[in-house]
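#struct-pred

JT: dropping the chains for the assembly here, can someone run the whole complex?
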Amino acid sequence: KQEVTQIPAALSVPEGENLVLNCSFTDSAIYNLQWFRQDPGKGLTSLLLIQSSQREQTSGRLNASLDKSSGRSTLYIAASQPGDSATYLCAVTRGQNFVFGPGTRLSVLP
Amino acid sequence: NAGVTQTPKFQVLKTGQSMTLQCAQDMNHNSMYWYRQDPGMGLRLIYYSASEGTTDKGEVPNGYNVSRLNKREFSLRLESAAPSQTSVYFCATGTFRSGANVLTFGAGSRLTVL
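RK: done, full complex below.
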């Protein structure tokens, strides 16, 4: 059974710092990995999608990498801003099936 | 453009009561999903519907039933609510883009069972 973990569970940083969020999964037979953002009281918003044949994807200040052989993905956020404060979840996908990690709660302090 | 709309946003039930969570989408997506989110556990799939007229069990289906009324609507029913069903419920739609299934989520429904 696929299991997804995320470290750290919570992170607090001052504005302007670069930071890395980690996602680990136990079964490397995945199709894709997605990173989502969740604001308090809201649903999830897709940030980045990495297909299994890719090693990384970039969108603005966000860069996500994927290493299937080691079962790891990282989300790098450059020059963090208070507006980046949210919970970030990763999900590994295989067809219709998504397995989500528990999320990392990020606070960026002004 | 509403996207994925869930009702109600909040609900308090007593043990043994029944209720239905409604989900409607205007995105013309074929797939629809119901997840529950509990602290520290991520989202877990309850049921999903790959297309109109089909439904399948997910990871945690016990205590729930679903109905895919048409392409737009996918409802989740609790026949006899239990405190263990206290959670935040999310409906999502799925569509394939660049070879990957991409989900769009509703805002969630917070359910408390006393």
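JT: nice. DSSP finds no helices and eleven strands in chain B. The CA atoms of residues 51 and 102 of chain B lie 15 Å apart.
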